[in-house]
Design brief:
The protein is mainly α. The chain contains three helices and two strands.
């Protein structure tokens, strides 16, 4: 969970392993510093273009003005949300791959022999699958709620 404002992001220090928290912070720093650099470059280009236009007007040059196609820059809060959502999706993907790698041998063992230990292992994996499915559904529902709520935009 993150608290995202128009110019700040608050990251609670509880609930995340230190390496995950560190990776998230590094990714946010990278993306936001890159965004800041692009914004600075666009601002400098705009100032140079304005200065050029002033010189053109002073010299009575009537050449057509070229339109700059500016790269669309997402607002701060959407860029942070994009990074956070990317991390959530990557974590889900890692959990799915891990669960898949553990399920195949368990199901193969179940086809070889049916005993209490094998059945318990498969039941445990099924419970993990159900938990993961509920987490994914919760994220999807929240995203749908955000997309449907025009006040949040």
């Amino acid at each position: 969970r993150l608290i995202i404002t128009t110019d700040e992001v608050f990251i609670p220090l509880f609930g995340l392993p230190p390496e995950t928290l560190s990776d998230l912070i590094k990714e946010l720093e990278y993306v936001l510093s890159r965004r800041h650099g692009i914004l600075n470059r666009l601002h400098e280009e705009r100032e140079a273009k304005d200065l050029f236009c002033l010189k053109k007007m002073n010299s009575n040059d009537s050449a057509d003005e070229e339109e700059d196609e500016e790269e669309e820059i997402l607002p701060f809060e959407l860029r942070v949300f994009e990074v956070a959502l990317g991390r959530v999706v990557a974590n889900f993907k890692n959990e799915i791959v891990d669960l898949d790698e553990r399920c195949h041998p368990a199901l193969e063992a179940l086809t070889q022999r049916v005993d209490k230990v094998t059945l318990d292992h498969v039941r445990l994996l099924k419970n993990k699958h159900s938990t993961l499915t509920k987490k994914v559904e919760a994220v999807v529902e929240e995203l749908e709620r955000i997309m449907d709520d025009d006040d949040d935009m």
